[in-house]
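Problem 12. The chain below contains 225 residues. Write out its predicted structure in C-alpha cell notation.
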Amino acid sequence: YCREQIRNGTTGHFTLDGLTPYMRYSFAGGNDGVSENAAAWSADYTFNERALVEMLGRSQDSMMAERPPRDGHRKTILDPHATHVGIGLAWEKGEFRLVQEFVRRYVDWTRPVPRQARVGDGVTLAGKAHSGLRVDAITVHHERFPAALTAQAASAIDTYSLPDARREYLPRLRSNVTRPHDGTLVVEQRLYENGHRGDFYTGSDGTFTFDMPFPDGPGIYTVVV
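Solution.
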C-alpha cells in the first residue's frame, strides 16, 4: 500500500522539534521570507525509480488540485512574490519525503537581524530594498520559545503562519519645505492620521535603518520588512 500525507500550510509544514520553517531557515543563516510545502509517502516495500517519479507527480498534482479555503500548498506554489525555490527529496526503503522551499528575497541586509540578543540590548538593523521596491512598514512578531511536540500534537497542526502577536512600525515622514516669494523657508511637518511622525528612517535609494525593540520580553522575534 501507499499512504500520502500532504500538509496544508501557507507558511509550512510541522517539525517535531517545534521549529517552524522560517525559524529553521533563519537559524541556518537565511534572512528572507520563506514558505514551505512538504509531502510524505510510506509503503511496505522499497521504492524503485519509477515509483519515485510517480510519487513526485502525484504529490505535485495533489497540491495544485487544492481548492479554497484549504489550498495552502497551491497558493505557496503560485506565490507571485517568490524569487527563489529549492526542492529537496529523500527516500529510504519504504519512506519518501518531498520538500519545496519558496523564498522571497527583496531586501539586502547591511546589518541583519542577530540570531541572539538580550532583552536590554540596543540592536539596530539596516538594509536596502531591491530596485523598484520601497519599504512601506516593518512588523515585529513575538512568540514563546519553541518546545518539543509529541507526534499527536504535530499531527493535529495543518497550517503554520506568523504569530498574531505583532507590533507595526512605519517609515518616518519627511517634512515639506517650501520657499515663498519673500525668500523665507517654510517647513511643514507631515504626520500620519494618528498624529505620529513615524518610527524608522528610509532613504530615497531604498535604504532603511530600524532600531529593534524587545517590548514583549524573552522569546522569538520575527522581523518582517
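Discussion. The CA atoms of residues 28 and 40 lie 23 Å apart. Students who got a different answer should revisit the alignment rule from Section 12.3.
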